[in-house]
Specification:
This protein is mostly helical and 275 residues long. The chain folds into two domains: 80 residues, Serine Threonine Protein Phosphatase 5, Tetratricopeptide repeat (Alpha Horseshoe), CATH 1.25.40; 186 residues, DNA Cyclobutane Dipyrimidine Photolyase, subunit A, domain 3. Helix content is 56%, strand content 0%. α4 runs antiparallel to α5, α8 packs across α10 and α9 packs antiparallel against α10. The protein is globular. The structure holds flavin-adenine dinucleotide (FAD). The site of flavin-adenine dinucleotide has 27 residues, from α3, α5, α8 and α10.
């Protein structure tokens, strides 16, 4: 944590200036690539009130109205939207925004199987490299790239069928930018229960997401060093490698994605009927 962040108002301002000078022009193209430092990383400073959205907005618009600036402002807009939701729905972190999700058949958390699946997710040992890389980045630094937050949250709620509130709580405990509005709305958006939620049938495939957004595998190599020697072709599906790593080096997959996807879609269909 200490190595990754320096708290304080002065650092927040410096970070903003560096972002506007060095990364903003690449923001639109590269903001979805977790191996590249292309986003502002201002979220912890915003969460602690060390810089305000108005200061950021004003500094960014001072750089003109390029497509890159517009995209960055749009992301700040998501934060405002989340706060607007929280203002009107104070229990956003506890209750489904869409009540039809109240009957959703989440996996019971009583059994050992569910407990060990959640633990594998928390520790970055699911056997899916992009998910594990994200969960380990979170544990080491208190931050996770936005694209990987979406993948990791989709994996918990859809592949593992675990209630989004369990993931929300873990992020709340571990994120250095933990924010009551953005965290709750981010989780509800991914789970499908939120306002303007991702369509229920969108179940991220962690292998394809990894191949698309971490094509060379550099992000996985950084956070899952036991896979560092795998070529880009198999780093997102180590079980397909010529010499797969033994399970005591890197864990076997906790679920089969195709079967898990079918199970999730079945569960979501029950919600659709109620809606
Ligand atoms: C499941 C999930 C949980 C999340 N939990 C949090 C959280 O607890 N705290 C938090 O600040 N963000 C959260 N986000 C949103 C987003 O991931 C982070 O704001 C972003 O990764 C922060 O990095 P950055 O400052 O480099 O972002 P940049 O890309 O540089 O964006 C600039 C600012 O815009 C805001 N922003 C960007 N994307 C989003 C978004 N999708 N939703 C709301 N605001 C956004 C943030 O304030 C961010 O600092 C969550 C997203 C998901 C999918």
């Amino acid at each position: 944590m200490r190595a990754a962040w320096s708290p304080g108002e002065a650092t927040a301002r410096t970070r903003l200036r560096h972002f506007l000078d060095d990364a903003l022009s690449r923001y639109r193209q590269e903001r979805d690539l977790p191996a590249i430092d292309a986003t502002s990383r201002l979220s912890p400073h915003l969460a602690f009130g060390e810089i305000s959205p108005r200061q950021i907005w004003s500094a960014a618009t001072g750089r003109g109205h390029s497509a890159a600036v517009e995209k960055f402002l749009a992301e700040l807009g998501w934060r405002e939207f989340s706060y607007n939701l929280l203002f009107h729905f104070g229990d956003l972190a506890q209750r489904n925004f869409r009540p039809e999700f109240d009957t959703f058949p989440w996996m019971s958390q009583d059994g050992e199987e569910a407990a060990s699946a959640v633990e594998a997710w928390r520790r970055g040992r699911t056997g899916f490299p992009i998910v594990d890389a994200g969960m380990r980045e979170l544990w080491s630094t208190g931050w996770m790239h936005n694209r990987v937050r979406m993948i990791a949250a989709s994996f918990l709620t859809k592949d593992l069928l675990v209630d989004w509130r369990i993931g929300e709580r873990w992020f709340w405990d571990t994120l250095v930018d933990a924010d009551p509005a953005s965290n709750a709305s981010g989780w509800q958006w991914v789970a499908g229960s939120g306002a303007d939620a991702a369509p229920y049938f969108r179940v991220f495939n962690p292998v394809l997401q990894g191949e698309k957004f971490d094509p060379a595998g550099d992000y996985v190599r950084r956070w899952v060093p036991e896979l560092a020697n795998l070529p880009a072709k198999t780093i997102h599906q180590p079980w397909a490698a010529a010499q797969p790593p033994p399970p005591d080096v890197y864990p076997a997959r906790v679920v089969d994605h195709a079967a898990a996807r079918a199970r999730a879609l079945g569960a979501f269909r029950t919600v659709k009927k109620v809606a």
